[in-house]
Amino acid sequence: MTQLQIFLDIATEAALAAGTVLMDYLGKLGETITEKGRPGDLVTIADKTSEKVILEILSRHFPQHSILAEESGKLGNQDSEYLWAIDPLDGTTNYAHQYPCFAVSIGLLINGVPQVGVIYDPYHDELFRAAAGLGATRNRRSIQVSQTTELAKSLLVTGFAYDRRETTDNNYAEFCHLTHLTQGVRRGGAASLDLTHVACGRVDGYWERGLAPWDMAAGIILVQEAGGKVTAYDRTPFKIESGRILATNGYLHDSLSQELMETLPLLISL
Ligand code: IPD
Ligand code: CA
Ligand code: CA
Quick one: which of 126, 131, 143 has its CA closest to 15? Predict the structure, then answer.
């Protein structure tokens, strides 16, 4: 077994354990929902317990690695070339409303490059896995991106960050513009699942800004291993710290990039 396969299997163990936690708390949050800072940016006992379970498994197996976890921040050996980016509950707003679109996302970056990704949607029992050179799977079966070549025939997905009320760079204009040009633009509310949908061909492209590394790390390698393309909006190499991602089936990459680059902010009062 290669080292990447070992990483993939341990990340899978952690994601499945965390998924059980999420299903156990679903609909039972009571008074545990609080806001982290910005209005609407929620955290719950489920986020925290899920993260605890993941951290216990990863740090037991890889005590020398570095970790960036949404609720705990930076942990472990910060000099390590291995960095685990963990979202213990992606789609917390959905989860708090019992809207069934949420997941656990665990990605491994090696020297800053996403190499391993596991995303688990416990409600639908869908397990997405990928590692560099090993392909991408959904419930252990190989997946590929779609073959749609025209924006007019495409279905896209995007999202809106929690700072959307504070900036005109809030993706509203891009959402309206692309809604006109395509068969539709969905807003799922869980960035990791948006990326899995690109990877398995349910949608043809995804873009978003204002994301954190833990939202994207696992999904990036899934899309790439499923045959898709990931860059910055302007097609320059993707940088995880930019928070801005364009992920497509490859065929639509240039046209979607061009539309995003040409969209001007909507003039609405904030
Ligand atoms: C959020 C979701 C959402 C995206 C936000 C993220 P959270 O993550 O992925 O789809 O639009 O930018 O912050 O807070 O539910 O883990
Ligand atoms: Ca998230
Ligand atoms: Ca989260």
Answer: 126
Q: Which residues line ligand 1 (CB under 6 A)?
A: 87, 90-93, 159-161, 189-191, 210-211, 215
Residue 195 pLDDT > 80: yes
Edge-to-edge strand order for the sheet containing 245-248? 184-187, 155-158, 205-208, 245-248, 229-231
pLDDT of residue 167: 87
What integer is the mean pLDDT of 65-87? 97
Q: Which two tokens stand for residue 61?
A: 């197996």
Cα R_g (the chain), whole angstroms: 18
Mutate to test the pocket of ligand 1, among 71, 90, 196, 209 (most ligand atoms within 8 A of CB): 90
Residue 97's pLDDT is what?
94
Is pTM, for the whole model, over 0.85? Answer: yes
- Ligand 1 atom nearest 189 alpha carbon: 10
Dist. CA 238–CA 151, nearest whole Å? 22
**In angstroms, rounded to a whole number, what is the distance separating the alpha carbons of residues 9 and 29?**
30
CA 160 from centre of chain: 13
Q: Give domain 3-142's CATH superfamily.
A: Fructose-1,6-Bisphosphatase, subunit A, domain 1 (3.30.540.10)
